[in-house]
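COURSE: Structural Biology Practicum
ASSIGNMENT: Worksheet 4, Part C
STUDENT ID: 0417
INSTRUCTIONS: Below are two proteins. For each, the amino acid sequence is given first, followed by its structure token string. Answer the questions at the end about the second protein only.

PROTEIN I
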Amino acid sequence: MTCTAPPTAAGTTDDSFAPTATRPSAPARTADAWRLSLQCGPPAPATARREARRVMHAWGADEETVDDALLVVSELVTNAVQYAEPPVAVSLCFFDDRAILVAVTDGGPRPEDQHDDDRPADEHGRGTFIVDAVAVGAGDVTGRDGRINHWAVIGPSAL
């Protein structure tokens, strides 16, 4: 698997966005890619973090980048499990300039009355702010099939 940079405009409809490497009008960069399908349930964020950590360490990513990427993985997977329809998958792309693209794909929004969030209102709703604080870029891409790719770039440079 290879990687392409995500579209720059949030909300862009593009069924081809997925970890697959070259970006038009930019020099090609080498990339390693990884993808994991998750069971849609409470253990999903922990499973995604554990496996993503293992993969990023194998790639030789620095610890600060790994920590930031794991925070993003946790927030995006948690949101997918709580607010979206299955299937849920997490993907990582590690670029030669040390940037990591984190993408979480879900089946699209779940009806409002089916959300799996029993926490008080003051204990949720910060995920987007957290992702924006540690990422150099983030957004969403909705496919024609209704699946949504939530992405964020972690590392020293934007894609």
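PROTEIN II
(use this one for the questions)
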Amino acid sequence: MELHITGDDAADKLLSDDAFALLTGMLLDQQVTMESAFAGPEKIRTRIGSLEPGTIAGYDPQGFVEVFKEKPAVHRFPGSMAGRVQALAETVDKEWGGDATAIWTQGEPDGAEVLRRLKALPGFGEQKAKIFLALLGKQCGLKAEGWREAAGHYGQADAYLSVADIVDPDSLVKVRASKQAAKAAAKAAKSTD
């Protein structure tokens, strides 16, 4: 698996090699660009020397906020997002033995069960869980039966709706266009209410 999300080779390599990095990038993907969100795990790893869930969970919370604030910032909301990353790390460490891949592999779960497990993670609502499930299925080799159905419209082939569909610069442009169209449609619907 070789992901191309951030445009930064080191950040993309970490996402490709480390399941917790990928999970963390997905968590950070709100109110910032996808590239910035998914580059966050590499910034954290570089600054604290590790991306192990146990290390992050045990890091001094205020010190971890400072790690997020360091320029370039990990996220535009360092306090709340640092706390969310630590909560995610603690959950992965305590409930999944520090192995993020166990969330989607332990016990050979089907797509609906993987979705349920993802939604149980701190910071993962319905939409984020479905997008991450689609990312696992489309780019990370997830073979869970029914993953496309569980991921909803994000699981459709050639959908270009989310980070799950970004494989090169061209697909990034298509995803951006579909996101902008969806925002415009939502805004138009709101103004007619």
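ANSWER KEY EXCERPT:
Q1: The chain has eleven helices and no strands.
Q2: The first helix runs from residue 9 to 17.
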